[in-house]
Amino acid sequence: MTLIDAIKDEHDRLRSRLVLLKQEIDVWTRNGEPDYDLLHLLAQYFMRFPDEIHHKKEDHIYDALMDKGVLETEYLLRLKSEHEQMGLLTTQFSEHFDDLLAHHVSPKWTMIDKVKKFIVMQELHMADEESQFLPLARKELSVDRLNEIGAAARKALINDAARESFQELATIDSGIESHLAKKK
Ligand SMILES: [Fe+2]
Ligand SMILES: [Fe+2]
């Protein structure tokens, strides 16, 4: 599987998690009781997976395209800055969620607002990458070069911190799956 296919698969996975997040937030917006445990798991998932794994893979492609001096440097910089903004939004909603669980304050609407912004931004960002960034990478980088970048990305992700991340994410993921199984 090429790095581009891996990124597309991860987008599908992210989208399936966004659907769950949206469902819970819709229930909450209508003043129903969301599944707080599932929301907590999803907040952890979005705090970790995009920044610790997904964006790191994309960064390798961004850098290769920038090194090649492709014209769309501004576009690539915008994508990178969206990664930072999405990271900030997830940190904020996760902090609000911690406050909510600790019953300090009830920042429900602030949190809903941040989550909704995050969902829209994540969806637009992925659609943008699939319509422009990934086709640009396919056009500008040869299969050999993409394989090289894929190997470098994998190598960079094989370290102790990343291994710990993968294990923790697997635990979060199986927590999400077992919640879904219980709902069926
Ligand atoms: Fe991205
Ligand atoms: Fe992406």
Task: Provide structural commentary.
There is one protein chain. The chain is mainly α and 184 residues long. The chain has a single domain, classed as Four Helix Bundle (Hemerythrin (Met), subunit A) (Up-down Bundle). It has six helices and no strands. It has helices spanning 3-29, 36-67, 73-101, 108-140, 143-157, 160-183. Helix 1 packs antiparallel against helix 2, helix 2 crosses helix 5 (143-157) and helix 3 (73-101) runs antiparallel to helix 4 (108-140). It is globular, with a radius of gyration of 18 Å. The relative contact order is 0.16. Bound molecules: fe (ii) ion (2 copies). One fe (ii) ion binds at residues 7, 11, 54, 58, 126, 129.
Features:
mainly alpha, binds fe (ii) ion, 6 helices, globular, Four Helix Bundle (Hemerythrin (Met), subunit A), 87% helix, single chain, 184 residues
Summarize the model shown:
The chain is built from six helices and no strands. The protein has helices at residues 3-29, 36-67, 73-101, 108-140, 143-157, 160-183.
Binned, the helix content reads over 70%
Mean of pLDDT: 88
How would you characterize the largest beta sheet?
A: none
Pattern of helices and strands: HHHHHH
How many discrete structural domains?
1
At the fourth CATH level, what is the homologous superfamily?
A: nmb1532 protein domain like
Oligomer: single chain
Low-confidence stretches: none
Beta-strand proportion? under 5%
The CATH architecture can be named as Up-down Bundle
Classify the fold: give the CATH topology: Four Helix Bundle (Hemerythrin (Met), subunit A)
Structural class: mainly alpha
What is the first-to-last residue Cα distance?
Answer: 33 Å
Radius of gyration: 18 Å
Bound molecules: fe (ii) ion
Let me know the number of strands.
Answer: 0
Principal-axis shape equals: globular
CATH class: Mainly Alpha
Number of helices, where a helix is a run of at least 4 consecutive DSSP H or I residues: 6
